[in-house]
Amino acid sequence: MDILLIAGLWLHGSTWDDVAAALRSHGHRPVPLTLPGQGDGSAATLEDQVAAVLAAVDAAPGKPAVVGHSAAATLAWLAADARPDKIAKVVLVGGFPAADGKPYADFFELRDGVMPFPGWEPFEGPDSADLDEEARRAFAAAAIPVPGGVATGIVRLSDERRFDVPVVVVCPEFTPTQAKEWISAGDVPELAQVKHLEFVDLYSGHWPMHTQPAELARLLAAAADPV
Question: How many angstroms separate the CA atoms of 64 and 76, rounded?
């Protein structure tokens, strides 16, 4: 099966390299996506990134699994909304989809039209506990500022058939129990309506593609394999 891999904020598609290599050994075809605005210097919008994801879905020979990491959980979910009949499964890694009408990822201050990586202070604790100083320096040096048109883009969802698409939530810096509690409390309204929802645990920080690529690949392969 094709597995489309969408990284979160500040990341290039190459962040999936180790995961992609492991997925091939599991018999899948990984397709890491580098989206408009992720290193090409363009003033991309959220719509541009959604269009790139949908182009990858449409180019897949069968029904792909779509993996969204962190904020890109929303991109994966937007793909399910636009192509509910063409996606086998959505896998969310360390993130949850935003609801209709909400901004995509206006989490930090924009500077000169982009949202730069804010440094490690906002991510102290479970998010970054498994990253050593060298890994943190490398991450920060490679971080790609997010175009303002992406970060502040408004999420638009319209097809309720998205709730028929099976979803797997991979829980790295939080537990499945916590995720279920947040959904039950109404914090993630989109997932509360999903008809086939699973949770898997992954003991890591927020960026398991860097710290646990083999285990993340194993979980993604298991999620993509037919039952």
Answer: 11
Summarize pLDDT for 25-74 with one digit per residue, the tens: 999 999 999 999 998 888 899 999 999 999 999 999 999 999 999 999 99
Q: What is the DSSP letter of 156?
A: -
Rounded to an integer, what distance in angstroms lies between the CA atom of residue 158 and that of residue 30? Answer: 28
The answer to whether the CB of 171 falls within 8 A of the CB of 178 is yes
Domains of the chain: 2-224 (3.40.50.1820)
Amino acid identity of 24?
A: R
What's the pTM?
0.96
As a whole number of Å, the CA-based R_g of the chain is: 16
Distance CA 145, CA 116 (A): 4
pLDDT band at 86 (very low <50, low <70, confident <90, very high): very high
For the chain, list the strands marked E by DSSP. Answer: 2-6, 29-33, 65-69, 89-93, 114-115, 146-147, 167-171, 197-201
Find where tokens 């949770």 sit.
Answer: 199
Strand partners, 146: 115
Q: Measure the CA–CA gap between 90 and 4, rounded to whole angstroms.
A: 10
Helix axes 213-224, 17-25, angle to 10 degrees: 50
Q: Cβ contacts of residue 106 below 8 Å, gap of 6+?
A: 115, 151, 152
Q: H/E element holding 189?
A: helix 189-192
DSSP-derived letter for residue 195 is S
